[in-house]
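[09:14] KT: can someone run the structure on this one? pasting the chain below
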Amino acid sequence: MIRPEGRFYHGQPVMITRNNNQLKLFNGDVGLILSDDQKDGELSAVFRDGSGRSGGFHPNGYPNMKPFTP
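[09:31] RB: done, structure tokens below
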């Protein structure tokens, strides 16, 4: 089920709009917003790196990301 809560919601695709070398995120990278049931549904923006691993951060903590519509 999709339940919008503010700007982002679980299952939403997002795209990076500006390079961030520290986070290893680059313009055009696409990820997903996922909720973590173990953290009371807290949202994370999750992206895969070149090795197939994924990392996440709170979506409101990174301003250079926007909802993505293919």
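[09:33] KT: thanks! The beta strands are 13-16, 30-36, 42-48, 54-57, 65-67.
[09:34] RB: yep, looked fine to me
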